[in-house]
Amino acid sequence: MSQAMSSTGRISAALLLVVCVAALCALPWLLPAGQLVAAVQMLIAALFACAFNLLAGQGGMLSFGHAAYFGVGTFATIHAMNALGGAGLLPTPLMPLAGGVAGLLFGLVAGWFATMRSGVYFSMITLALAELLHALAPHLKGVFGGEAGLSAMRMPAWGFSFGSDIEVYFLVLAWVLVSLAALYGLTRTPLGRLTLGLRENANRLRYLGYRPHALKTLVFALSAMFAGIAGGLQALNIEAGNYVLFEVKLSTDAVLFAYIGGVNAFLGPVLGASILTFLSQTLADITRSWLLYQGVLFVLVMLFLPDGLVGLVQRAAKSLRERGLADWLPRAAVSVASGLLLTAATVFSVELLQRMFARDYRALLAMNPDAGWPAIALFGRDWAPLALSTWLVPLALFAAGLAACRWAMALWRSGSDAAPVLEAAR
Q1: Which residues lie closer than 8 Å to 16 by C-beta, 6 or more apart?
Q2: Closest C-alpha among 13, 18, 21, 17 to residue 173
Q3: Strand, coil or helix: what is 62?
Q4: What is the DSSP letter of 83?
Q5: Contact at 8 Å (CB) between 54 and 226?
Q6: Which stretches within 239-324 are classed as H helix?
Q7: Predicted model pTM
Q8: For residue range 60-95, what is the model confidence (pLDDT) as tens digits?
Q9: How far apart are CA 400 and CA 341, in angstroms?
Q10: β-strands 240-241, 150-151: how paired?
Q11: 60: Cβ–Cβ under 8 A, 6 or more apart, which residues?
């Protein structure tokens, strides 16, 4: 019985994977032209997050400087594109190999030193190496182009001009799918099992005759190699790069992508990277507070969803199978309603406060202090910032959200012995 269920689960997972790949292939004809560039960034971010997760999620080594290997891959690919008088060291579709090789070599050197320590000391060494590279890059003009950076141009190859966004999208998609397949295959090898052993108990591996330092260095270098491939794809995408690639923000993004998506699931970082990249592309044009929302999401996931968003999806799917659609749907609807109410209360409060403390609003208030606080336009109407009725709106939304949340938790506990989706969030 259990073997039949396991076989059914594998078939379902394979079908879902085929559907997802088919959807990615159809995406250029489903999205507006302007959104295809965002889709390419989502793919690159997904590969970068999975490369980071090989080190942090599977190997248990939290790196705070993975942007270094992404940036090295980007600049190596740009140099390869400019080689031989602009003809390119490799055909354009193979250019990310230059980024991968550069990431691998730099990762071997950096990993050898960083993995001499573990825990927080390892994390600080990786951060220091990345910051050192970030500080040196503007002064190494021959390598990184100084503050202006370097640029290159995609050359025609294999019958393609690579001048359109669609051709670039499919080139990036092919590399991302191949790289993810290689990363997944790595997890099924003895090296992948040893990587998990490094996370669980490195001393036990030493007692079994393995050399943990050498294993850590190898895993670090492989993670840097795939990060370099992602950097190479970035070079092909934007045809330029500068020292900003080495900033700590890019390293922070990798941490956020992996942990919000879920470091314990192979495709968890893909989900986290896709969601956060999409939000950054859309919310950045709507609100100035999108980084705050990203931080709030990260805190909530760390507090209530230690397995990430993938863990939430897995528990929801398990509960659906155990309860049945008729029993599961009302509980899920109440849970979603509570989340929407709490989100609405948070967004209303943050946006109103952001506008109240904005520099232009404070300047307007200072110009005419006797007129009182001007009304703030938000969500299609004007709100008096000091009026009680204004702040009753988020308070009411927050109270309704809390009530719906308590109701949802009570519903999940009742009616079945199945493990509730929200139990782990208590």
Answers
A1: none
A2: 21
A3: coil
A4: T
A5: yes
A6: 248-261, 268-283, 290-304, 308-323
A7: 0.86
A8: 899 898 999 999 999 999 999 888 777 778 898 999
A9: 7
A10: antiparallel
A11: 198, 199, 200
